[in-house]
């Protein structure tokens, strides 16, 4: 890594915090049948074991990012880790479905504080240049590896010691990070001269009306989308939730235009880098989360793999993900950020198009291994570059908010994508079941989801090229001073990160 020792140690602690958040997102997927039997969940209740965490996480990320900017990021990170560890411990001890789902809500609340604060602290540790590029490479590696390793650990722990240990393990990990935080991560936000009597934190007040409005809007949106998978798009509850989300989002836009201390300042979105980066990240997220949903299902329900074998099958994807994250800054310096993002998105699209050829009588080696490597490489490189793009050139007091925003767009994009792709796969499977065997019908549904995902990423690659001609500074992250980047005229190229 060639990073100074103290910076490298601090980055490792922050990356471990991000890893635990991503781990909790996917670690339950393989264990859902055992969890359902263990606490007596209904079919809809089983869905909410996953959705309760993702719903609260996605809805409160913006509030978590702003809280870190105003109250101090290391402090908010500590609070988030404490809530996250407590929620994980309660989930592992849960004896009823209500307690388990409530514990998952507490986990999501903690994660919404952890993710933006940890990312902002990591960015603060490194000035613009190669060091920051390598740091974001590490961030991309642990984020992708957390999702992939969650499937592996979930299968191994469930098979060896039972499903409660998937939550106990996450609780132990969060507690260890919380213990290391005060000693190993400096108060980077307390050293900035942000104004009198601010303690180095961003000046201003917390935007309570904006926070409540956008949180309710995102809650209605994600709840409506996830409920539509089971109830149908014409269900009154679904239509009511989506309509409420539209009204609340419109109200949020009006509130933010009028408040001096807005949760999402309009000036933040006027910079083409932030708006464009978050749009592209939302599209990437719509495919990312769905991938880790459908691939284990194909391995277990069609290929007949057990929980442990399914988890082990994710290791090549995780390894490719970590490799791609380390390569991303080097590729960006060599061929430019625009070409790197475009190539990464097309590589992932190629892997998903390969997955669209899976067979009911297939095998892991023939149908899953090769495309998993392509998907892992493309996914990690695109994640690193788009994260840097969405946060590049911002003043220090806005990095926590920008970190919350880019995580929010990925989570909300993932909820939208998963709902749409699950609906597509379900409808294709239902039609195919009238004239095909059960496994063949399931496979047809999964193939349609992977095909649609590949099309989304191909369109995202094209959009990235178009946006590169309209947004972002001419200067690179490695060479431009902060003031110059803030005032530079709009260019024709994405910035080179790293």
Shape: globular
Number of helices: 18
Strand content: under 5%
State the distance separating the first and last CA atoms: 12 Å
Helix content: over 70%
Q: How many strand elements?
A: 0
Order of helices and strands: HHHHHHHHHHHHHHHHHH
CATH homologous superfamily - what is it? MFS general substrate transporter like domains
CATH domain class:
Mainly Alpha
Question: Roughly what is the average pLDDT, rounded to an integer?
Answer: 81
Q: Structurally, how many domains make up the residues?
A: 1
Please compute the radius of gyration using only Cα atoms.
21 Å
The second-level CATH architecture is: Up-down Bundle
Structural class: mainly alpha
The CATH topology annotation reads as Growth Hormone, Chain: A
InterPro entries: MFS, MFS_dom, MFS_trans_sf
Membrane topology: Multi-pass membrane protein
Protein name: EmrB/QacA family drug resistance transporter
Subcellular location: Cell membrane
């Amino acid at each position: 890594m060639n990073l100074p020792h103290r910076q490298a140690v601090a980055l490792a602690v922050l990356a471990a915090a991000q890893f635990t958040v991503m781990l909790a997102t996917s670690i339950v997927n393989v264990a859902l049948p055992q969890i359902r039997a263990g606490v007596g969940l209904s079919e809809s209740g089983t869905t909410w074991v996953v959705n309760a965490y993702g719903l609260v996480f996605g809805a409160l990320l913006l509030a978590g990012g702003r809280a870190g900017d105003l109250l101090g990021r290391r402090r908010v990170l500590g609070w988030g880790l404490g809530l996250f560890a407590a929620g994980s411990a309660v989930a592992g001890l849960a004896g009823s479905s209500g307690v388990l789902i409530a514990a998952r809500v507490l986990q999501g609340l903690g994660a919404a504080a952890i993710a933006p604060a940890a990312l902002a602290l990591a960015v603060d540790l490194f000035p613009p240049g190669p060091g920051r590029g390598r740091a974001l490479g590490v961030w991309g590696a642990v984020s992708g590896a957390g999702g992939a390793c969650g499937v592996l650990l979930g299968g191994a722990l469930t098979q060896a010691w039972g499903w409660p240990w998937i939550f106990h393990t996450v609780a132990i990990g969060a507690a260890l990070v919380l213990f290391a935080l005060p000693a190993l991560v400096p108060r980077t936000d307390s050293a900035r001269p942000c104004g009198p009597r601010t303690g180095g934190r961003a000046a201003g007040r917390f935007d309570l009306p904006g926070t409540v409005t956008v949180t309710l809007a995102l809650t209605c949106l994600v709840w409506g989308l996830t409920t539509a998978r089971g109830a149908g798009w014409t269900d009154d509850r679904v239509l009511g939730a989506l309509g409420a989300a539209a009204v609340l989002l419109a109200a949020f836009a009006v509130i933010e235009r009028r408040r001096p201390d807005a949760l999402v300042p309009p000036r933040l979105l006027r910079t083409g880098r932030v708006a464009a980066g978050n749009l592209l990240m939302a599209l990437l997220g719509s495919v990312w989360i769905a991938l880790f949903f459908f691939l284990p299902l194909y391995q277990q329900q069609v290929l007949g793999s057990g929980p442990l074998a399914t988890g082990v099958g994710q290791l090549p994807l995780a390894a490719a993900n970590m490799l791609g994250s380390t390569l991303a800054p080097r590729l960006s310096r060599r061929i430019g950020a625009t070409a790197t993002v475009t190539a990464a998105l097309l590589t992932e699209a190629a892997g998903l198009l390969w997955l669209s050829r899976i067979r009911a009588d297939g095998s892991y080696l023939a149908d899953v291994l090769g495309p998993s490597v392509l998907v892992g490489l493309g996914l990690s490189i695109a994640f690193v570059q788009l994260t840097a793009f969405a946060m590049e050139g911002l003043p220090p007091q806005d990095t926590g908010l920008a970190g919350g925003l880019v995580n929010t767009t990925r989570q909300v994009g993932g909820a939208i994508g998963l709902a749409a792709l699950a609906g597509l796969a379900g409808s294709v499977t239902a039609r195919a079941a009238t004239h095909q065997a059960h496994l063949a019908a399931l496979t047809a549904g999964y193939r349609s989801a992977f095909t649609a995902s590949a099309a989304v990423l191909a369109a995202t690659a094209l959009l990235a090229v178009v946006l590169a001609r309209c947004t972002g500074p001419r200067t690179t992250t490695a060479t431009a001073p902060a003031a110059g980047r803030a005032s530079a005229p709009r260019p024709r190229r994405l910035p080179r990160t790293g």
